Amino acid sequence: MNRRAFINWVGVGWLASSLPVAIAACSSDTTQAESNTNKGGFQAVGTVAQLDKNKQLLNKNSPVGAVLVVRTTSGSKLSAVNPTCTHAGCAVNWAAKSQQFVCPCHGSRFGADGKVLNGPAAKPLKTYQAKIEGDSVLVNG
């Protein structure tokens, strides 16, 4: 075998052995961690333990942005909103007894569904779908 034929065979062998690596690198499969965090558009924002401990779960830096998750009176339904008041940008608080989000700055009140109950805010809070899966609290927004 001459030098040219040998180099051609080595080149073909290298190319053939590199092809599976290149295909795997370009694959669109998600890792296990990604599949645990993003389940059908839902993003993990915290744990059930955090929600139960504080009766609410505030995550200012979640994948969907700032989110406040609370359990409503029945305890089985979750309500999730962006906690930024639409009037002046203050962070709303959850008033469990009245089942309302209340703005401490100017007194705006919002229902568990984010709708304005009492101004001066005129726009509702942004809401998210929320659910519990395993020990994670997930929101979709």
UniProtKB/TrEMBL annotation:
Domain (Rieske) ranges: 43-139
Keywords (A to Z) from UniProt: 2Fe-2S, Disulfide bond, Iron, Iron-sulfur, Metal-binding, Signal
Domain of life: Bacteria
GO cellular component, one term: membrane
Cleaved signal peptide residues: 1-24
CDD domains: Rieske
InterPro entries: Rieske_2Fe-2S, Rieske_2Fe-2S_sf, Rieske_Fe-S_prot, Rieske_Fe-S_prot_C
ATP-binding is among the record's keywords: no
Cofactor(s) needed by this chain: [2Fe-2S] cluster
GO molecular function, one term: monooxygenase activity
Pfam families, A to Z: Rieske (PF00355)
Full protein name: Cytochrome B6
Organism whose genome encodes this protein: Aliterella atlantica CENA595
